[in-house]
Amino acid sequence: MNELFVTVKENLVFVLEFFGIIVALLLVALLLEKLAQKRNGSSEKFLTTRKMAMIGMFSAISTVLMLFEVPLPFAPPFYKLDLSELPIMIGALAFGPAAGVLMEFIKILLNLLINGTTTVFVGELANFTVGCSLIIPAAAIYTFWRKKKGAAVGLITGTLVLTVFGTAFNAIYLLPAFAELYGMPMDVLLAMGEEVNPFVKSGDIVSFVVACVAPMNIIKGTVVSVITLLIYKPLSPILKSVYKN
Description:
The protein is mainly alpha-helical. The chain has a single domain (2-244), classed as Arp2/3 complex 21 kDa subunit ARPC3 (Orthogonal Bundle). It contains nine helices and two strands; from the N terminus they run H-H-H-E-E-H-H-H-H-H-H. The protein has a two-stranded antiparallel sheet with strand order 1-2. Strand 1 (70-71) and strand 2 (80-81) form a beta hairpin. Helix 6 runs antiparallel to helix 7 (148-181). The two termini are 36 Å apart.
C-alpha cells in the first residue's frame, strides 16, 4: 500500500489526468442516460442504496475475473484476454452507462489496492478507457431502446467501437508509452509480435495492431456480448427489482 501511495505521489500529474478522463467519461455517460430518460419519459434515480450495493457487487466480481488472464497465440505475451467486462456489461445494461463507468473505475481501484501497479498506471488507464469503449455505447443504446434488439444492436456497436478505439489507442498511445516506460525501442515490442504472428511486418506498428490487437478486441467483445445476451434476460427480473427501492 505504501508503494502505491509513493507511485501516486511520484506521478501525480498523470494520476490527475487519469481522474480527469474518468470524470469526462462519467459525464458523457450521464448525459446519454439523461437524454434516454427524457426520451422514454423515465425519472429513475442515478443511484439508490440497493443500486450502489449491486454496483459494488458487480465491480468485485469483475475484479476477480480480471485476475484470470488467457494468453493468445497470435499476440505477444504482454497481451492477455480477460472477461472482467462481462459483469460490468450486465450491470451497465441494467443500471445505465454511468453505472458502467463507475464499475470500471471501482474495478481498477480494487485491482490497484490488491496488486498495485507495475506500469505506473499506464496499463490501468488503458484497461479503463478500452473497457469504457465497449460498455458506454452498448449500455447507452440499450438505455434508449430497451428491447432485445436494442441490446443486440448495442452490443454489436460496443464491440465495433472497442475494436476500432482499442486498436487505434494501442498504436497512438499505449505502445509508445510502454516503450518509454520500460526504456526499450519500439522495434523490440513490434518484433515480439512478429515472432508469433506472420501477418506482422517488420517495424510496422499498423500491421502489429491490426494483426494482434484488433482480433483480441473482437474476440473479447464478441464473447462478452454473446454471454450477456444469453444470461441477461434470466437475470433481469432480479436486477430490475433494484429500481423499486
